[in-house]
Design goal:
With 492 residues, the chain is mainly α. It is built from 21 helices and no strands.
């Protein structure tokens, strides 16, 4: 069965030499890359963060700040995007960057875990000594390199999605690809929880955990023997998915050459000139700010959700890892349903606005679950939060691709990726910081965690207010004028 079985045949008579339309099977194949990113996100923000905060008793601010370093190197996304626009690798604009980045981030994840064991061992042996801080600093540096590899891969991949689609099928591709991201989170949660569900690291170690004590909270040798295999097996799977997802797609389906007026003059769209295109457009700044606030509000709980399950609900590592299942399933339904049902009917801005309102309500339910100690309510709240996040993701991502100029697609995608990555980094650090503040103010853990979720709900309302000022038509008009001036040298 070929891709053409899922799409109408291309009208070659009307468009001689144009690539064929993207089939549904190829859309799902592209989604395998996002599925891999979902797995890696689960391993880093879920498993590693939980181990540091709950098992190794690392201060939440330090744990969150170290992990967030992979987001704070996000300015490199603009550079990698521009490089993929202008400097083909292995004869292709996007695919070579995707593969090299995948090699990097899958290998570095295992290295980061080994440093975490050394950090935990030093903390147990000497407390917060100079050596312990050095290990924490090295961990932050490793996560920064991890972020560079992730940027080198994910930004050209997002630009590839622009290259291989047209306006009439882009929303469907977004629905499929971002749904697969959630599939990756769900699969990663299920497989990782099975790999981590061992009696020697689940139950007793958590039951004796006392956050007021600074002593040992886990047997690191036993813990590492259980966790290490997961960080070997899962990254290898992710690398294989990255190759399978993108092999041959760009060569067959990319419309970059036919769309870009700058393709024969690649030397003229330098990074500096591409940035001039970005800054020449008022809408770029507005949408950048909107994405920053929106992403910050969605992901602030990343640093605290698994510890929330461990400290407030008494869950073990495997149980808190499985909290990603209802969230991932909800997001999966939200993205797929939005791409095919809500977006065509409500439009991109109204769809995104609806998701923001629903997400704010869900944060209240997550807090209520903590007060009632109801695991069922927590799972239900996470499912509906995932559903809301899926609606937001599909709406905002479709809007993002509309706010992208073909001639500098990689650079624009890099800019949007920069905004989101900065926000996710800030969200991780802010989540840990607010949790620290909450613990200093409140004696009851649920109130400390509730402070984080309340702040997220407020952020959602701010994002709704900012969305009103975004105008796609104004962006397109300004972008085309700016690009023409760049090619003429008038913006230098």
């Amino acid at each position: 069965m070929t891709n053409s079985d899922f799409s109408p045949p291309p009208n070659n008579a009307a468009n001689p030499g144009m690539p064929p339309p993207l089939g549904l099977l190829t859309m799902f194949r592209l989604g395998l890359f996002q599925m891999g990113l979902g797995i890696m996100s689960l391993l880093t923000l879920g498993v590693l963060n939980r181990i540091m905060i709950d098992e190794l008793n690392v201060v939440p601010f330090i744990a969150a700040s170290a992990i967030a370093m992979h987001q704070f190197v996000s300015p490199a996304r603009v550079w990698f995007g521009q490089m993929s626009d202008t400097k083909p690798l292995f004869g292709l604009h996007r695919t070579g960057y995707v593969w090299l980045g995948a090699v990097g981030f899958t290998a570095i994840a295992f290295i980061a875990l080994q440093v975490i064991w050394q950090l935990g061992g030093s903390l147990q042996a000497t407390g917060w000594s100079g050596v312990t801080y050095l290990w924490a600093g090295l961990l932050a540096l490793i996560f920064a390199v991890y972020g560079l590899a992730l940027s080198a891969s994910s930004t050209p991949f997002a630009a590839l999605l622009v290259d291989v689609t047209d306006d009439d099928n882009r929303s469907k591709l977004i629905g499929v690809v971002w749904s697969m991201l959630m599939v990756g989170i769900v699969i990663g949660a299920i497989v990782s929880s099975r790999l981590l569900e061992q009696p020697d690291v689940c139950g007793a170690a958590i039951a004796t955990y006392d956050p007021s004590q600074d002593g040992k909270v886990a047997n690191i040798a036993q813990l590492s023997a259980t966790v290490n295999p997961a960080f070997i097996i899962m990254p290898l799977v992710v690398f294989g998915l990255s190759i399978l997802a993108t092999f041959g797609v760009e060569k067959k389906y990319s419309r970059y050459a036919s769309r870009s007026t700058a393709i024969a003059r690649e030397d003229q769209i330098t990074l500096g000139r591409a940035l001039k295109v970005l800054t020449a457009n008022r809408q770029t700044g507005l949408f950048f700010s909107f994405l920053l606030v929106l992403t910050l509000s969605i992901f602030m709980q990343d640093a605290v959700l698994e510890p929330y399950g461990g400290e407030v609900f008494g869950m073990c590592i495997a149980d808190t890892t499985r909290l990603n299942v209802p969230f991932g399933m909800g997001t999966l339904f939200g993205i797929s349903g939005t791409g095919f049902l809500l977006l065509p009917r409500l439009g991109k801005k109204n769809t995104t606005r609806l998701g923001c309102f629903c997400a704010a309500v869900c944060f209240g339910l997550i807090i209520l679950a903590g007060f009632t100690a109801s695991r069922g309510l927590l799972s239900g709240a996470l499912f509906f939060f995932g559903l809301s996040a899926g609606v937001i993701t599909a709406g905002a991502t479709s809007l993002m691709l509309d706010l992208t100029a073909a001639e500098t697609a990689g650079t624009f995608i890099g800019a949007w990726g920069l905004s989101q990555a900065m926000a996710r980094g800030l969200a991780t650090v802010l989540g840990g910081t607010v949790l620290n503040i909450g613990k200093a103010i409140f004696a009851t853990p649920v109130l400390a965690y509730g402070l984080v979720f309340t702040l997220q709900a407020v952020g959602m309302m701010v994002a709704v207010w900012m969305l009103r000022r975004v105008n796609v038509q104004e962006f397109r008009t300004s972008a085309q004028v700016a690009i023409a001036k760049v090619l003429e040298g008038e913006l230098d």
